Amino acid sequence: MEEFFQQLLNGLAVGGIYALVALGYTMVYGVLKLINFAHGDLFTIGAYLGMTLLVSSGMAGSLSPLLVLLVVFIMVALLVALVGCLLERAAYRPLRKANRLSAVVSALGASIFFQNAVMLIYGARLYVYPEDWRPDFTVDILGFTVPGVRLLVIMASLLLMFALHSFIQRTRTGAAIRAVAIDQSAARLMGINVDRIISLVFLIGPGLGGAAGMMVGIYYGQIDFTMGWSYGLKAFTAAILGGIGNIPGAMLGGLLLGVIEALSSAYISMAWKDAIAFLVLILILIIRPTGLLGERVADKL
Amino acid sequence: MIQCRRYSAFVLVALLCVLPHMLDRYWIDVCVSIGLYALLALSLNVILGQAGIFHMGHAAFYAVGAYVTAIVNTQFHIPVLWLMPLAGCAAALFALLVARPIIHLRGDYLLIVTIGIVEIVRIALINDVGGLTGGANGIFGISRPEIFGFTIKKSMQFYYLVWGMVGCSVLLLGWLARSRFGRALSYIKEDDVAAEGCGVDVARYKLMAFVFGAFWAGMAGTLYAAKMTIIAPESFSFMESVIIFAVVILSGGSQLGVLVSTFLFIGLPELLREFSNARMLLFGLAMMLMMIWRPQGLLPPLPRRYNVQAALAALRRRKAEAEPEHKAKAKQGEA
Fold first, then answer.
1. B109, B116, B284 ranked by CB distance to A113: nearest
2. Do B119 and A105 touch (CB under 8 A)?
3. Domain count of the fold of chain A
4. From A227's CA, which of A44, A80, A116, A282 has a CA 20 to 30 Å away?
5. A192 assigned to some structural domain
6. Nearest Cβ partner of A112 from B107, B249, B280?
7. Kind of pairing between the strands at B146-147 and B150-151
8. Is A257 a domain residue?
């Protein structure tokens, strides 16, 4: 029972991270019908930027660790959002009218570019996240001792998801994003500046992804430059699992995939952990390509 | 344009024949590795360049071919080159099994699934499935290939073996591209709905292209195993698939284009050794810039040529032959 409970919480923490990355995929897919392969690498950039900022922050003694974490967290999200926005300008906007698969190839190129840029800047070795900032308190829940960092990650991801959901559903700008996702030309006729909305999506998605990258650094304590691929692919699996283009779907899919992965690595086999996510991906594409919550029937799938 | 390409192809062949006599061993080895990549890229070109199926898991089929060769050779001591058809068939069978349920998926979804397949294969190899694949260390002690009792050991001999195979592939695949099968594939690439409407069985042709490409990749796997004598899961990583994919995309889809872009992207980084770290960075940059400025690739296939005059003449002749019969029938009807 103890192990099940711990694995469940672990799955929710990892799943929350997947969900944050999946939101970036799903929002971009929603407005551009493009799989942004470089998203996983923006996530890596977030993790590395977080590390650099934490190490070099001069706020060591004066502020409480949690506050420092929060400040760095916001800075990372903003910086990665900027990178994402620039990426859209440079690599995707010129291809907006072109064949959809050209944009996919460009996205792949961007992904390889970012991954190797990180490698050239930081080197190919594994990095350990600065220990000083890692929250090391524990909390008792129902008689089980749970590491505080696990709860923090779950709470932070849920909070961000909730904020995004209310932004998309409650505000005028959120309504504009939904409108662009449904029909770009109609949205343009209604006076929505489509280019601005697309830029905004490329700010929000990568921002959340970068924040998730830093959460991985804090949660696992180590990062390397290739992690974007595996997290990116799993987050994409999560987005498809929930129904791509569907924002609550990405959240549900992420949490579900995290829990599936944690439980199967605990009870089935640790060595096959990564294969299980891909198996889920293949099965969902064969059985129900629209995903769990995807009500919109994808064309010609 | 056609003349120009024909001459450059002749120059290329002549150059490839004399090349190893001008190079030292290291560079011959580099050329052998370029040849192996060229084989893979040519086989992927059937799937990606001709049929337009976004398949990024080619390393999986390569791995199946190489591992089947390695396992059968080390366990049963069957000469390596005899195993080439077997390795091809194993890869083709594997491709048939995995592609059957996913072939109808649309472009970018298929891309993701094929990435999933190559990762699953790599993880399966590392986890030593059935105790056959040797886990993360792989398999070693694969014997050298023999042709009529003559053992191929030197780099120079491998060079001719591998590039001979590339030559055969270019001829065969070129013929295939001009055949009815190749025409069906280009139709599917241009517009699969219209192809379906004209009676092309899209799913079946796509599957055939997939299986055929996998067969060729499996045979390339045999050559790789024979050259290296050691194979390990890390040689068939996802990055390998990405490199082959990028080579084919940037080539534009013609055979000459594939060879040129293989030389550019596998050979050139060796020349610029000091920048070898930045190799993949440039690769990614090239992919982005290429899609923006030259989305059709380096050397796209030339438009097909049909002898319209001859076709019209044949049509007229057939009509003329049918005419008297027609009139005769009409007369019979009147009578």
1. B284
2. no
3. 1
4. A282
5. yes
6. B280
7. antiparallel
8. no
